[in-house]
Automatic annotation (TrEMBL):
Cross-referenced PANTHER family: PTHR39434, VOC DOMAIN-CONTAINING PROTEIN
InterPro entries the record matches: Glyas_Bleomycin-R_OHBP_Dase (IPR029068), Glyas_Fos-R_dOase_dom (IPR004360), VOC_core (IPR037523)
Family annotation (SUPFAM superfamilies): Glyoxalase/Bleomycin resistance protein/Dihydroxybiphenyl dioxygenase
A Pfam entry, by short name: Glyoxalase
Record-given protein name: Glyoxalase
Lineage of origin: Bacteria, Pseudomonadati, Pseudomonadota, Gammaproteobacteria, Alteromonadales
Domain VOC as annotated: residue spans: 9-135
Originating species: Pseudidiomarina insulisalsae
Top-level taxon of origin: Bacteria
């Protein structure tokens, strides 16, 4: 689906968290996202050029399901962004150094096949699943 404009526009995503201070620690300190507007119960983040909002909603947090993909149990729902390979490696190192446990360790998925990609999964401190990807060839993003 195309909007008619070839420029990628930022997405907006609002997610539940169980503690605003811990959200600031995770998204600000560990992931390195800059903070935008905020109130007592929510914070806007510059999530790699996209608008991510963490809303205090502890009753809505946690993981619901996993689906098998390329031999791994992928958490559903999840979200993330496609990074450059260099930024992906740097983020993997930063997450590991912070002691965050990977749900799916950084690795190459679909090696030698259409859609070959670097991927990793981990949870934020409220149980929201994140996936970060990178492609050696970005043209493989929508390969089938």
């Amino acid at each position: 689906m195309s909007s008619g404009n070839s420029a990628v526009r930022p997405f907006h995503l609002a997610i539940p968290v169980d503690n605003i201070s811990r959200a600031r620690e995770f998204y600000g300190s560990i992931l390195g996202c800059s903070e935008g507007r905020s109130a007592e119960e929510w914070v806007d983040w510059n999530f790699y050029g996209h608008q991510l909002v963490t809303h205090l909603a502890p009753e809505q947090t946690g993981v619901a399901h996993h689906n098998p993909v390329d031999g791994h149990a992928v958490p559903v729902p999840h979200f993330g962004v496609v990074l450059t390979m260099e930024d992906w490696r740097a983020l993997a190192d930063r997450v590991a150094a912070a002691g965050i446990e990977f749900v799916i360790e950084p690795h190459i998925r679909f090696a030698g096949k259409p859609g070959e990609q670097a991927t990793m999964f981990f949870y934020d401190f409220s149980g929201n699943a994140l996936e970060f990807k990178a492609f050696a060839d970005l043209n493989q993003l929508f390969a089938s």
